[in-house]
Amino acid sequence: MLASLLLGRRGPSGFSWSSTAEEVTAGISAAGLTAIVTGASSGIGAETARTLALRGAHVIMAVRSLPAAQALRDAVFAQAPEAKLEVMELDLSSMASVRTFASEFIAKGLPLNILINNAGVMAIPFALSKDGIEMQFATNHVGHFLLTHLVLDTMKKTSHESNVEGRIVNVSSEGHKLAYREGIHFEKINDETVYSSIRAYGQSKLANTLHANELARRFKEESVNITANSLHPGAIITNLLRYHSILDVIHRTLGKLVLKNAQQWPNSNKLEHLFCLANRVRLRPAMSLCTHRQRASLGSTSAIATCTNHVRWPSEKAKDMSLAQRLWDFSIELIT
Ligand SMILES: NC(=O)c1ccc[n+]([C@@H]2O[C@H](COP(=O)([O-])OP(=O)(O)OC[C@H]3O[C@@H](n4cnc5c(N)ncnc54)[C@H](OP(=O)(O)O)[C@@H]3O)[C@@H](O)[C@H]2O)c1
Asked: Which PANTHER family does this one have (predicted)?
């Protein structure tokens, strides 16, 4: 396994550690599908949006940095003039901005098959959002929770009318294990005296996974034809650590030697394949994995986003459905 990783040998899936998103999705059509990708102006979100658009999906790049997203959109148009790629403004740290984005999206009258809750900040100094919520929790979790809540009826309608399974993907992280000991600081979510930038990141990533789990449970209960999953994208060189000077320097120097770039994030090698199979047995449905065969058969939905690296070994907290329910109630209170 290690040799396969180090030498870049292809695994049973036919892909290696260095395979790119374009290579992994070659031959898969996403035509006829509409997707929203948050944080599509940089890193993993940019590459996900680009690849989905190249495969024929109508992609909404939901971003706060319009010029960066427009430049990426123009680069895709240069490569594929027929691509359907739109840039819309969204600041996840502001509930007003999320509501404006959702109402403008709904006003377009488009269907919605895929929602990729990807945007995120990591290890930032303590700050409160415009709504007075700790910034990492506000951006990474609350903004996505509200966005999902507001577009869910459109997704349900789309999956019902088209009979195509909808997909919600929360980009979480193995970093969810770094959350506070209690998991989520419900009572002191905004308390600066207990704030740790790394633990608060872990808390927000744990929330991404719990959110997906609770969504999946509800979809099953209501027989809704949508899946909700959380995933760990792997360790990828992006702009994520820009707020943490020490980690950023390590990431950009030593990391270059061993980490993947954004084009390589959705690959699958033997090592991941094994983890995939193991996880299929170990995890709850919301985090259950796709085999590579399933990846191909899911081509008409969002194989790109769902059948890649998932949260491999979720913490006990991530599997705790009573915690997921509590977070759901807490989040509903925050958004209403
Ligand atoms: N890279 C890794 O190794 C790794 C590992 C595990 C998990 N992840 C997860 O992967 C996701 C994507 O991160 P990345 O590595 O691609 O980092 P990135 O290059 O920094 O991209 C993050 C994206 O999120 C956007 N964003 C941040 N705050 C926002 C806000 N308030 N409203 C709207 N968009 C906002 C950023 O927009 P701006 O450009 O405007 O700031 C950017 O487009 C994150 O959820 C992260 O937790 C990454």
From this structure: SHORT-CHAIN DEHYDROGENASE TIC 32, CHLOROPLASTIC-LIKE (PTHR48476), SHORT-CHAIN DEHYDROGENASE_REDUCTASE (PTHR48476:SF2)
| Dihedral sign, Cα of residue 101, residue 107, residue 108, residue 113 | positive
Angle at 259 between CA 120 and CA 174, to 5 degrees: 45
Q: Is the CB of 116 under 6 A from ligand 1?
A: no
Ligand 1, atom 34, lies closest to the CA of 39
CA terminus-to-terminus distance, the chain: 49
Tens digits of per-residue pLDDT, 230-266? Answer: 988 888 878 887 776 666 666 666 666 556 666 655 5
CB-ligand 1 contact for 199 (6 Å cutoff): no
Nearest atom in ligand 1 to 40's CA: 43
Q: Beta 236-237 vs 58-63: how paired, if at all?
A: unpaired
Q: Which residue has the tokens 């909404």?
A: 60
Bridge partners, 230 (sequence order): 170
* DSSP string for 282-302: HS-GGG----HHHHHHTTTTT
Catalytic residue flag (residue 195): yes
Q: Is 230 in the pocket of ligand 1 (CB under 6 A)?
A: no
